[in-house]
Amino acid sequence: MKKITAIMVAFTMVFSALSVTPKTVSAKVTMLSEKKVKITIGKSSKILVKEKKAKYSSANKKIATVSKKGLVKGKKTGKTKITVKVGKSKKTVNVTVIPANVKTCKAEKTSDTSVKVSWNKAKGAKGYYVFYKSSEKGKFTKKNTKKTSLEFKDITSGTYTFKVKAYGNSGTVSAKYSKAASVKFWKLAWSDEFNQKKLDTTVWSYGVNNGYASHANQEYTKGNNISFDDDNLIITTRAITDKETGKINFKNPITSDYITSNPNAEGIGKDVKYGKIQVKAKVAKGKGLDSAAFMIGSKIKNTPWPACGEIDIFGVNENEVNMGLCAPYVSKIFESNYKANLTQDEAANAYHVYEIIWEEGEPGKIEYFVDGTSKGVFDLSKDSKSLSDSRWVFNEPFFFNLFTRVESSAYLSTWASKKDDGDKIVYEDYFYVDYVRVYQ
Prior knowledge:
Blueprint lengths: L1 H18 L16 E5 L3 E3 L8 E4 L5 E3 L4 E4 L3 E9 L2 E10 L6 E7 L2 E6 L7 E7 L7 E5 L3 E4 L5 E10 L13 E5 L2 E5 L12 E2 L12 E3 L4 E4 L2 E11 L12 E6 L10 E2 L2 E8 L6 E9 L12 E8 L2 E10 L2 E12 H6 L2 E8 L5 E6 L2 E7 L5 H7 L6 E9 L10 E5 L2 E16 L1
Parallel strand pairs: 1-7, 17-20
Antiparallel strand pairs: 2-5, 3-6, 4-5, 6-7, 8-9, 9-12, 10-11, 10-13, 13-14, 15-32, 16-20, 18-19, 19-32, 20-30, 21-30, 22-27, 22-32, 23-24, 23-30, 24-25, 25-26, 27-28, 28-29, 31-32
C-alpha cells in the first residue's frame, strides 16, 4: 500500500511540473530597413532586422543574392524578393536591380541640320532613353534605342539639349540622367552672297574717311573701285605712279572703296544684334594693305566711336590677320585681340571663313573662329557686375563695314597686279568677299 501511495505522489509531482511550464511564444521579424530596396547592378545593400538569428533567402539568385548577414547584391537587372525568417515568422523585401548610370554624353553636329548623340555603355543596360529639347524652356521628349548613339536629323534652329538614361529588364531604369550635352543650330536670317553683279543699295552705301575708317594714304571712291566676278564682291585698291620717277602722282591718289550697311534716314542699311556671323573672303596680298570686315555699334550717331563699340571680324595688321574688338573702359579704349594664325599671304592665297558667335547676356560673350576653329573668346562674366557694365556695350545692334585701308604705300612691288599705262604704271590689289551671312 505504501508503495502504491509513493508512486501516486511521484506521478502527481511530474504532472504538476508539466502543467506550470510556460508556453513558447513564436518570435517576430522586426524590420529596421525599408521593405522596398533599389540596387544598382553590381552594388550591395544590407537588410536590417532587430533579431540576431534572422535567416535570409532570395527568390531569384540570378537577379540578386543575399548573404547570411542580410547583404543583398544586384546581379542582373530585374525584380525579385528576399525572405527574412525568424523562427516561424517571416517578412518579404521587394528588391529591384537597376542598370548603372550613363556617365558621359556627347552631342556633335554631323551637318547643318543633324546631330549625333553618343554615350558610354552602361552595365546592365538593355537599351537607352534619350531625352531631348530644342530650347532652354522647352519640355524634354523621349526616344529609345538599343545602341549607344542616336542621330537626330532635319533640325532647323535652336539650342538642343540631350541627356540619357539606361533601361534594363522588367521596366527598370537607371537612377540618374547622364550629364547634359548641348549643341546650337543656327538658321540663316540674312545674307549677301554678292551674286547679283551689282551692289545691293538697299543694304550697302559707300563710306567716306571717318573716325573709324580713315587713313591719309588713300581716298575712298563711291563705287569706282567696286566690281563683281564669280559671285564675289571685289574691292580694288589702285595706285598710279609716274613711270619715269616711280613716284605716286598725287593728282591721282591711291584709291580704294569702303562699303557700309550703316542704317540711314532713307531706310538703307542693315544692322544685327547677336547671332553667328560669317564672312568668307580673300584679303589683298600687298604689304601695307589692311583688308578688313568689322562691325560698328549703330548708336554711333549719338555715341561716338569708340564708346559705341567695335567688333573686328578680321583685319590684316603687320602682315598677319587679327580678330578682336574695341569698347570703352573708363576713359580709355578697351581692346582685346586674338590671332587668326594666318599670315597675310595665307589669307590672300585662299578663301577663309571668319566667324563670330555673339551671345546675348548681361554681359554676354563673343567668340572668334577661323574655318570653324575657335581662336579666342571675349567673356566678361567673370568680372564684377559694375566692371562688366562699364565696358560691355555689345547689347545693341551693330552694322557691317568692308574695306581695304592703305597703311603704307612703300610696298607697291608686292601688290597683286602691275600694268603699264603710257607714262604711268598702275598697281592694283584685290579684296574678295564671297559672302556675309547672319545666323540666328
